[in-house]
Amino acid sequence: VVVDPYVSNHDKTKMLTGWFDRTMPDLNQNNPYLANYLIQNSIWWIEYAGIDGIRMDTQPYPYKEMMSDWAARVLMEYPDFRILGEIWVGNPAIVSYWKSKKSTDGYESNLNSVFDFPLHDALKMGFNEDEGWDSGLSRLYNVLTQDYLYEKPEEHVVFCDNHDVSRIAAVLNNDPAKIKQAMLFILTIRGIPLVYYGTEIGMSGKPDDHHGKIRRDFPGGWANDSVNAFSQTGRDSLQNALHQFTQSMLNIRSANEVLQTGKLIHFIPNDGVYVYFRYNNDEAVMVVINNNKQERKLDRKVYAEMLDEYLQMYDLESGKEQNYEHDLVVEGNGYLLISLKK
C-alpha cells in the first residue's frame, strides 16, 4: 500500500492509522510534538548508552515522511550510526523503495541498511529443492540478479534466520551439511551477515512452535543450568561440529577482506551447483555450493574468465595449495572455498 502509485485513500488510511495488532495501538507521528519527542528520545538513548545502531522494526508501517525525518536527524548527530530497517517483504522491487537514494516519487528513507528478506526467502526454499530455472539454488541467483534495483546492495543484512522466522536448522530438517551450506552462503555473499544466536549450534524451532521456542534461551550461562552450550563439553557432537564450522568461517571472513568488500561475479547454477567469486584487484575467493547428494565435477573452462587471472590457489579452510588445472570436484551436499592469488 505504501509504495503503490495507484493506492486508494481508503486503503492508505487503513494501513497507516490502524493498530499494529489488537494490543498495540499506533502513535500518531504526524503530531509534531510527538514526532520531535521520539527523535529526541532516540538521540538521548544513543548518547546515553553509546549504542552503534538501531534495528527499526516494521519500517513501512508508520508515516514514512516522519521516519525519513527521524533517520536524517539521527544521522545528522551521528554520521557513522547504523540504521537497519525491517522491510519484511520478499519482493526486491518493494524492498528497493526503502533502500534507494531517492525513489521515483522522490521519497528518501535515509536508511543505511535493510534486511534482505528476498534473499532469506530464497535461501530457506532453495536448499530444500531440486534444481530448476526458478527452484533450488537458482532462487539465490535470481534474487541477486535484481541487485540493480538498489543503490548499495552490499549494505543489506543477509541472514539464515531471526527471532520471527523458522530457525534454519528446522527448515533444513536438522541436516548438518545443509546448515553449513546456508551459513557458508551468508558469510561469503555480498552484504553484512547476521548470525542469530543458537544457529551456530543448530538450535531449532518453527513458527508453529510460537515465538517462545524460536526465541528460547541459549542453553547455559547461569550457575544452575544443567546444560552449558557455551562450553565445548556442554555441546553434543553435532553442536560442536556446527559451532566449529561457524567459528572457522567467521575467522576466514575476518582474515580475508575480499569476502567483506570484494565485488561479486556469479555463474548461472548448473545441475544443482552454484559458483560465485568475491574479488578485488589483487585476489579472489571462489565459492562452490553443491545442492546434490552426489558429487559433481565442474568444467574448469566455464570459469576461465576468473580462474585464468590467478596463478596460486589455496583451500581456505586447510591453507594448503591446490591444483585445479583441470576439472574441479565438489562432494555431495558439499562446498569448495578457494583462495586465488596472482
Keywords:
single chain; alpha/beta; 33% helix
Which helices and strands occur, and which strands form pairs?
Elements: H1 9-17, H2 32-49, E1 53-56, H3 64-77, E2 82-85, H4 92-97, E3 113-114, H5 117-126, H6 138-144, E4 157-159, H7 168-171, H8 176-188, E5 192-194, H9 210-214, H10 237-255, H11 258-261, E6 263-270, E7 273-279, E8 283-290, E9 296-298, H12 304-307, E10 312-315, E11 328-330, E12 335-341
Parallel strand pairs: 1-2, 2-3, 4-5
Antiparallel strand pairs: 6-7, 7-8, 8-12, 9-11, 10-12
Helix pairs in contact: 2-3, 5-6, 8-10
Give structural notes.
It is a single chain. With 342 residues, this protein is of the alpha/beta class. 33% of the residues lie in helices and 16% in strands. Strands 6-7-8-12-10 form a 5-stranded antiparallel beta sheet. Helix 2 (32-49) runs parallel beside helix 3, helix 5 (117-126) runs antiparallel to helix 6 (138-144) and helix 8 (176-188) packs parallel to helix 10 (237-255). It is globular, with a radius of gyration of 22 Å. 32% of the residues are buried.
